[in-house]
Specification:
Layout (H helix, E strand, L loop, with lengths): L4 H16 L10 H8 L17 H20 L4 H24 L2 H40 L6 H14 L3 E4 L10 E5 L2 E8 L5 E2 L1 H13 L4 E6 L2 E2 L1 H8 L3 E4 L1 H12 L13
Parallel strand pairs: 3-5, 4-6, 5-7
Antiparallel strand pairs: 1-2, 2-3
Helix pairs in contact: 3-4, 3-5, 4-5, 5-6, 5-9, 7-8
Length: 274
């Protein structure tokens, strides 16, 4: 388009004013456009190296930064260095927010304190969950090293802990009258049951899986996990492939625990996401 630069700029400025509902200034003053554009941003960029917050806009920026940092810390898999850095930025942001609110008026403080309290509670809950999973993972590693010497009851507890580390809600139900379900699982809408067979020798065949399938249907579960320390026959594997049953043998169980513990677990028994 053949257009002289001053004329193009004027046309563009007119269009911006029209989109914002402002009428063009007859003397070409664009202060209204600048003021309207400024209203698009409610917060100032958060400066981590700044010693303090100095304005309501900086407070909004700090709160926005804190929300994301809390989400990133407890909802993502991070390296050890990333965890340390995010922990520091959360503590620094909370410190500066507290200092700013202590100097502001009562109305401003009352407006922001509920969200700051909610974020603090989310940090506490996240830390508690991380510590709980860390302890579970260490117990799982210890039992994995003793796998060949576990009792059937301890093996069921071990399998439950493995699924808990994998993010399932776990209910131990093994014992007399368990109707083929040693462990019940839930993750979101998924409901599953687990049958544990602690065999030092032997092979699990399709008849056992056929019986277990009945237990899956009886429990109104979406899926069944059949876990054993031994192996499955070819017929059992073919049967499971056609039904909502996942087979976990000894090597696969070791693999799941190793994945949960993460790389470097032999040096430091801590899952990768902690």
């Amino acid at each position: 388009m053949d257009c002289q630069e001053p004329r193009c700029a004027a046309l563009l400025l007119e269009w911006i004013r029209a989109q914002g509902g402002a009428s063009p200034s007859p003397d070409g003053d664009d202060s209204t456009a600048r003021q309207r554009q400024g209203l698009l941003w409610k917060s100032a960029p958060y400066q981590e190296d700044a010693p303090a917050l100095t304005s309501p806009a900086e407070l909004e920026g700090a709160l926005e930064h804190l929300r994301y940092a809390v989400f990133r810390r407890f909802q993502n898999q991070l390296t050890r260095a990333e965890r340390t850095r995010v922990d520091n930025t959360i503590e620094n942001a909370l410190f500066k927010i507290d200092r700013y609110l202590s100097r502001t008026d009562d109305a401003e403080r009352a407006r922001h304190e509920p969200e700051v309290g909610r974020l603090r509670a989310e940090v506490r809950e996240g830390k508690d969950r991380v510590e709980r999973l860390r302890l579970q993972a260490r117990r799982a590693e210890l039992k994995l090293a003793q796998l060949t010497n576990l009792s059937p009851e301890t093996f069921e507890e071990f399998v439950g802990e493995v699924f808990e580390v994998m993010g399932f809600e776990v209910q131990q139900v093994g014992g007399t009258g368990d109707e083929g379900a040693d462990v019940r699982l839930r993750r979101g809408e998924l409901v599953a049951i687990v049958q544990c067979k602690y065999h030092k020798r032997g092979v699990v065949g399709s008849p056992e899986l056929q019986k277990f399938l009945g237990s899956v249907h009886h429990a109104h579960a979406h899926k069944g996990f059949f876990v054993t320390t031994s192996t499955f026959s070819l017929a059992a594997e073919k049967f499971a492939a056609d039904h909502p049953i996942e087979l976990i043998d000894g090597p696969r169980l070791v693999e799941l625990v190793t994945q949960a513990l993460g790389p470097g677990a032999r040096r430091e028994p801590e899952p990768a996401w902690f």
